[in-house]
Amino acid sequence: MGCHVDRFDGDGCIKEIVRRILNAQREAVDDCVTSCENSIEDLLSRRVRSRRNETTIPFMLICKESCKPFVGVGFVNDDRNRDRSRRRDFECIESPILRVRDFVKGSKSCVNVELLLPVGRRRDGDHHGKDLGEERGHHDHHHHKDSFCDKFGRRRIDNFRETGVCITLDLDCFCGITCLDPITPEPL
What we know:
- It contains 2 helices and 8 strands.
- With 188 residues, the protein is of the alpha+beta class.
- Strands 4, 5, 6 and 7 form a 4-stranded antiparallel sheet that branches.
- Helix 1 packs parallel to helix 2.
């Protein structure tokens, strides 16, 4: 069964949207300022309207073969004290939320992306310092058990944070893209 995506013409649509996201992010950072088209326009126009300084359009990609969201996986060194004599610990990071960093030099389809982790609070309003991906096992009654959205538990997403985990993707492997509203990710 192939992936069916409405409103996209041609094979280069995802590459073009990711390229436009990158250009919008660069302009927003350089100039200090839920659809992909709306997110791009919003990022570029917020400087004029509200003086907000969003720098990123987070997005998710849909894999061609499975029509399921891509989930990036990587490891980060959790060596906070930088003491070389101590054992290093690695933490596994996985997230479907991506931030474009740049296209690979000389490539029209390979792109470097950073994994972003959601940060938020429980639906009862209690703020929680952990990333949402760290707390599992709570099921939201609005979603089927083990659904994609269930991964984030019973928390509202307030923002996303940088992870420092970057991966290189070939955009020819994807048939869809979902953009979120512009944000400025929390630093590592």
